[in-house]
Amino acid sequence: MAPPMNGPRYNEFIQSPKVRVIDGDGENLGVMFTREAIEQAAEVGLDLVEVSPNADPPVAKFLDVGKYKYEAQKKANLARKSQKTQEIKEIKMRPNIDDHDYDVKMKSIHKFIGEGDKVKVTLRFRGRELAHGQLGMQLLQRVQADTEADAKVEQHPRMEGRQMLMVLAPK
């Protein structure tokens, strides 16, 4: 029989000569030889499962292996389902953006940050707009001031070719 690839070791796969045994009701039976503990587990119709292999001596418990693996898998799936991944949303602007357009972009930024996502604000310069880099910097500082209550600047404004970038993260 091949050793189990994933999950805890059980019965004859336990390599330690002695283990601390806990019975099916959760009572500590003390330290005993592994072979003896496997026989006792078999008498009550359960398997000897290593629950804490790094302890000295390892801790083993009388359990049903199939049920134990199933419950561990369910717990892992639940943990994976409940975690939230943080995405980076991008908002693109131009240096000569109008007030109403700016308000619409800010509404989007507040919505994204409220959902727990990071926001990358990209300011694209065209043609001779590049000569007026200070206008872009003023606009990004205005964005920073307007989102100060619920976001922190993760990456301060910087030029990258014909674009100016800034990254905001939720507080």
UniProtKB/TrEMBL annotation:
Record Pfam families: IF3_C, IF3_N
Start and end residues of each Translation initiation factor 3 C-terminal domain: 87-171
Domain of life of the native organism: Bacteria
Localization per record: Cytoplasm
Key words of the record: Cytoplasm, Initiation factor, Protein biosynthesis
Main location: cytoplasm
Entries under PANTHER family matching the protein: TRANSLATION INITIATION FACTOR IF-3, TRANSLATION INITIATION FACTOR IF-3, MITOCHONDRIAL
Family statement drawn from the similarity comment of this UniProt entry: Belongs to the IF-3 family.
Protein known as: Translation initiation factor IF-3
Source organism: Allosphingosinicella flava
